[in-house]
Specification:
Elements: H1 22-36, E1 53-59, E2 66-72, H2 73-78, H3 85-89, E3 92-99, E4 102-110, H4 114-132, E5 139-143, E6 146-150, E7 157-162, H5 164-175
Parallel strand pairs: 1-3
Antiparallel strand pairs: 2-7, 3-4, 5-6, 6-7
Length: about 180
């Protein structure tokens, strides 16, 4: 049986003042939400395992890629997409937008449909194959739907990232009224 679709864990947060410093803000918002959601995970994995949901915060004007999950080189080499923390964090996402130090919007996206997962899996597995073949560049592109970026402070870790443009496409796919798998049945 599939997990329930998350409704909201962020009620009343729009309009809340938070740090303008993006390095501080994400943790601050996580802490605010955790106060009213004691089941929130603070370790590895999705923030809300009960709902397969991950919380992402971003300045509304930011064009930097979304950081999804960090993994060691050994884990990337040995863990396929379906067993990875990347997949775990890309089931449902709660996106909190911040504008000039104020929470300006909250949206929940469901990335669980297989046709969405297939696009992300392809990016992960293509980049993983390159790493398994010895690629150790700073950026290892799998497809337009994701890439690994070497963590500057940790030489043996990469972060799986999705560009803003690709995430916008994934969000549109997740809110489409047409189920891609049943178009031609």
């Amino acid at each position: 049986m599939s997990k329930p679709k998350i409704k909201t864990v962020t009620a009343g947060l729009v309009g809340t003042k938070v740090s303008k410093d993006h390095a501080v803000r994400g943790t601050e918002i996580h802490e605010i939400i955790a106060k009213s959601n004691p089941s929130m995970n603070h370790g590895k994995g999705a923030d809300f395992p009960k709902f397969d949901a991950e919380l992402k915060t971003k300045d509304s004007s930011s064009r930097s890629a979304y950081g999804i999950a960090s993994m060691s080189i050994d884990d990337i080499k040995n863990i396929d997409y379906n067993s990875s923390v990347v997949k775990e964090k890309l089931q449902q996402q709660i996106h909190v937008s911040v504008n000039n130090g104020t929470i300006s919007g909250i949206a929940v996206y469901d990335f669980r449909p297989q046709w969405i997962q297939d696009k992300i899996e392809e990016a992960y597995e293509n980049a993983r194959a390159l790493i398994n073949h010895g690629n150790c560049e700073n950026y290892i592109y799998g497809s337009k739907y994701g890439y690994f970026e070497k963590r500057h402070n940790r030489k043996t870790q990469y972060q799986f990232r999705i560009t803003v443009g690709a995430m916008d496409n994934i969000k549109k796919m997740s809110t489409s009224q047409v189920n891609n798998t049943t178009l031609f049945e």
